[in-house]
Write a structure and sequence with these properties.
Distance between the termini of chain A: 53 Å
Structural class of chain B: alpha+beta
Order of helices and strands of chain B: HHHHEEEEHHEEEEHHHHH
Oligomer: heterodimer
Number of helices of chain A: 17
CATH class of one domain in chain B: Mainly Alpha
CATH class of one domain in chain A: Mainly Alpha
CATH architecture of one domain in chain B: Orthogonal Bundle
CATH architecture of one domain in chain A: Orthogonal Bundle
Number of strands of chain A: 0
Structural class of chain A: mainly alpha
Helix content of chain B: 55-70%
Helix content of chain A: 55-70%
CATH topology of one domain in chain B: MetI-like fold
CATH superfamily of one domain in chain B: MetI-like
Strand order of the largest sheet of chain B: 1-2-3-8
Distance between the termini of chain B: 35 Å
């Protein structure tokens, strides 16, 4: 206060902001203790973290058994299972968790298709890669056919591998991806039918869509496993996996139809009228004008449907297929590894979480990228 | 003038070839679709008949009146024994499904609203915790969560003798959860009657208050009077009858608990998993709903001198609800459908009892799956009818 410098108006040097609004202290003050209620909630949250995090971390990491090839490291003094995670269980069962009981000598077939898929997806995701359209067409049409011949074998000099040997995360991916790829064309047809002016077509499509959307997947799977054999002529017998795939496809095509319908509704009427004014017929209008725009809009919706389907594939365990979760359960009912079910669940939860969270982040990123208006 | 210039003797438009006539095409396509469905359906029905006949399986719904001959582990509402019919077993399974769906809906709503508001909290820790909760729950399959609750938590609890004791009235152990059950003595009817009268009174009061508000602008404290009515009237009735109500506490006798109400571990883990899973989805819906009400609405209300509480009640919440309710009902529907995962942990819901046990015993797949699916379709129909009604009521009335 001793010396007060005079400044000309408008030439006062910028003052530092008050210390209490910047830096770590300012951030804490603003976000954690701004009011008494806020402080109370902060303390509550810290208490909750204190209650939950240390025991979970202890169970998962610090008390857990990490190295070893058999169950001896996972036993306490009395010979029972330790009260923490037993990671050697996951290591020992890693191959069944990933591929089921697919023969070791044939695993390269699965891995090769994974690599092709990975490269294809990479090409789609990285913006700079050209020929995106062709990569997408390859992944949607020839690739599943290639996969079928690679997995099932029995032709082109490959050893046949029966579907009961398929399992683990591999089976989960087969069901989820087949479900989504096969349901896309059916869904598009249903969506077009639902918007059609022809009353019979419209009614049939609405009935079909609402029927599958109204019932739980588990009842569809039961239906496909007990009713499909009855529908077939005597003597024709379906593989259990095919039955599940048909059920999953019917179910997801109804959801896909609603997603595509959302995209069709978002296309302004002018696009349809413009196409018609150019003299395009219905097929050309849809194929060249409407669908490319509508499908681009619904990519995030398709990804979300895929996430839902990916999580729902766990239900095929109910009709006796050994998907990833089913394999985890099977592994922990093995006599050497009894009592480590929770470890298996923790591992399964982590894998599912990484897949689903990754895809949902990607779909949100797409939504932001594709959101071009307003 | 354009009309005048059209010559009166305009020739009829050139005849379109039948193949290019839109009406003929539409007719053709529809006949084609209908025909192929009929043929396809006919083949399926024919095959099914043949297969059923060759396997010696009866058809029709007569089996509903036959004796079931199997036990159901949990039937809280109906007395069920092995001598009852399949139809009765269906009813038991149906009620069990509705029970777990109801519990799930209530808790999921509570969790969802708390988490949705917490997600918007200005407190960084609270909103981050809510975010972690939501992302963890949404991205792990529900069946896995049910398994974790069932095998990892409830089955891993100590036995009845070492149960976890909550305030001496609720006991949790590996046989399930034991809670006090209310006991209604003679004369409780009057209390129920008083309760119903109170509800009717509140409805009438609310209508009258709204009318008066519109006529005179005088508000009436409906909330506090209703609260008073709904508490005082039944309490008064209970006092007159000498409090005809008590609690039946669960007590440890021998190796298990007796008395009280028993919630089996299957029900508890299913309800927990369903409500925490759906709660995460509801939280996102609630967050989006609250965020959808623009800040200008609140500011405008304040500028008009409306108090913050009233602003929240009359300006923000009605607009947020308009966004929240439709996806919320579809989450309720999802929860009801997801309750069918009960079959995986042997909770006797409609799928396990009917599509599982009864199907195995009778082999009448078509009828049984049709009944099970019909039930879920009926529920979704009712919920979507409610949604349409609500949407109409809440839709913006544009003048």
């Amino acid at each position: 206060m001793a010396e007060q410098t005079q400044h000309i108006v408008g030439e006062h040097p910028d003052l530092q902001p008050p210390a209490s609004t910047v830096g770590a202290y300012g951030w804490i003050r603003e976000n954690l203790i701004s009011t008494p209620i806020n402080t109370f909630f902060t303390i509550l949250a810290i208490y909750l973290i204190y209650l939950l995090v240390p025991p979970v971390l202890d169970w998962l990491i610090f008390s857990a058994a990490w190295v070893g090839t058999d169950n001896t490291v996972c036993k306490n003094e009395t010979g029972g299972p330790i009260a923490a995670a037993c990671w050697p269980f996951v290591v020992a069962w890693f191959k069944p968790f990933m591929f089921g009981f697919y023969p070791d000598s044939e695993l390269w077939r699965i891995k090769l298709t994974y690599w092709i898929f990975g490269l294809g997806v990479l090409a789609l995701v990285i913006p700079a890669v050209p020929f995106k359209k062709w990569v997408a067409v390859f992944l949607l049409i020839p690739y599943p056919v290639i996969c079928y011949y690679m997995y099932a074998g029995g032709s082109f000099g490959l050893v046949a591998v029966e579907t009961p040997l398929w399992g683990g995360l591999f089976l989960t991916l087969v069901i989820a991806i087949t479900g989504i790829v096969a349901s896309l064309p059916i869904g598009i047809l249903l969506a077009l039918g639902r918007r059609s002016n022809m009353p019979v077509v419209k009614a049939v499509c609405i009935a079909f869509i609402e029927l599958w959307r109204g019932v739980p997947l588990i009842s569809v799977l039961f239906m496909s496993s007990v009713m499909f054999p009855l529908f077939m002529p005597e003597g024709v017998n379906f593989d259990k996996l095919i039955r599940a795939l048909v059920g999953v496809t019917l179910f997801s095509s109804a959801y896909m139809a609603e997603v595509v319908r959302g995209g069709l509704q978002a296309i302004p009427k002018g696009q349809y009228e413009g196409a018609q004014a150019l003299g395009l017929n219905f097929g050309k209008m849809m194929f060249f004008i409407v669908m490319p725009q509508a499908l681009k809009l619904v990519i995030p919706g398709i990804v979300n449907t895929f996430i839902g389907l990916f999580k729902d594939t766990t239900l095929v365990g109910v009709i006796g297929l050994f998907d990833f979760l089913g394999m985890v359960q099977a592994g922990s009912s093995n006599k050497d590894w009894l009592g480590y079910l929770t470890t298996g669940f923790a591992f399964a939860a982590l894998v599912y979480w990484v897949f689903c969270f990754g895809m949902s982040q990607y779909s949100q990123h797409l939504e932001r990228k594709l959101h071009t208006g307003h | 003038m354009a009309v005048d210039s059209i010559p009166q003797d305009q020739p009829a438009p050139p005849k379109v070839a039948l193949i290019n006539d839109p009406r003929a095409r539409a007719l053709f396509f529809q006949v084609l679709v209908l025909g192929s469905i009929l043929i396809f359906g006919g083949i399926i029905i024919n095959n099914t008949m043949d297969n059923l006949a060759s396997q010696g399986i009866a058809s029709g719904f007569g089996f509903l009146n036959t004796t079931a001959g199997f036990a159901i582990g949990y039937s809280p509402f109906l007395e069920y024994s092995e001598e009852n019919t399949y139809g009765y077993a269906l009813l038991v399974g149906l009620l069990n499904t509705l029970l777990v769906a109801f519990i799930g809906v209530v808790f999921a709503t509570v969790i969802g609203f708390i988490m949705g508001v917490a997600r918007l909290s200005k407190n960084w820790l609270i909103s981050t915790l809510a975010l972690i909760y939501i992302e963890m729950m949404r991205n792990v399959p529900l069946l896995l969560q049910i398994f974790v609750w069932y095998f990892g938590v409830l089955r891993a609890l100590p036995g009845p003798r070492q149960s976890v004791d909550l305030a001496g009235t609720i006991f949790v152990n590996n046989r399930g959860m034991f809670v006090p059950a209310p006991v209604f003595e003679a004369g409780f009817g009057l209390v129920t009657a008083a309760f119903i009268i109170a509800i009717v009174g509140i409805v009438v009061l609310a209508k009258w208050a709204k009318q008066r508000m519109e006529l005179t602008g005088q508000p009436f404290p409906v909330f506090w009077t209703s609260l008073g009515l709904i508490i005082v009237l039944p309490l008064l009735a209970a006092a007159i009858m000498g409090f005809p109500m008590g609690w039946d506490y669960a007590e440890l006798q021998g190796f298990n608990f007796q008395g009280g109400a028993e919630l089996p571990p299957e029900l508890v883990s299913l309800a927990l998993a369903l409500s925490t899973y759906t709660g995460a989805f509801i939280a996102e819906i609630v967050r989006a709903g609250i965020q959808s009400v623009s800040h200008g609405q609140t500011e405008a209300a304040y500028a008009l001198g409306v108090k913050p509480g009233v602003t929240l009640r009359l300006v923000v919440i009605p607009q947020a609800l308009r966004v929240i309710i439709p996806p919320l009902t579809s989450q309720y529907l999802n929860l009801t459908k997801n309750s069918s995962l009960a079959a995986a942990i042997a909770y006797p819901d409609i799928i396990l009892v009917f599509a599982g046990t009864v199907l195995m015993q009778t082999g009448q797949a078509v009828e049984i799956i049709a009944i099970a699916m019909g039930f879920y379709l009926l529920v979704s129909l009712i919920i979507s009818m409610f949604m349409n009604w609500y949407n109409k009521k809440m839709a913006l009335v544009e003048r």
